Amino acid sequence: MGFFRRREEALALRLLRWQLAREGRTPPAEEDLRRHAARIVEEAHRIGRERGGNLVDILKDLVRSMRPRG
Fold first, then answer.
1. CA Rg, the chain, in Å?
2. Residue 24 is inside which H or E element, if any?
3. For residue 34, with 0-12 CB atoms within 10 Å meaning exposed, 13-18 middle and 19 or more buried, which class applies?
4. Where do the H-state alpha helices sit in 1-70?
5. What's the chain's average pLDDT?
6. How far apart are CA 22 and CA 66, in angstroms?
7. What is the mean pLDDT of residues 13-40?
8. Residue 32: how many other CB atoms lie within 10 Å
9. CA 3/CA 21 separation, integer angstroms
10. Is residue 55 a contact partner of residue 8, using CB atoms and an 8 Å limit?
11. pLDDT by residue (tens digit) across 38-62?
12. Closest listed residue to residue 12, CA positions, set 43, 48, 37
């Protein structure tokens, strides 16, 4: 995995944690959060390839809509 992908996943992880804290929810296990962040980044890249756009904005939208269930 490349440097930028790791940074993107770290950003998605921070956004997930922030969203969960804002909602007052207990975050799931760290490994589950990391897997979810990786899926969000993959989805953001897919959307970016199809429609174009800013990856960070896409990540933020995905975090809002694809919260981990737990």
1. 12
2. none
3. middle
4. 3-23, 30-51, 55-65
5. 87
6. 15
7. 92
8. 13
9. 27
10. yes
11. 999 999 889 888 888 788 888 888 8
12. 37
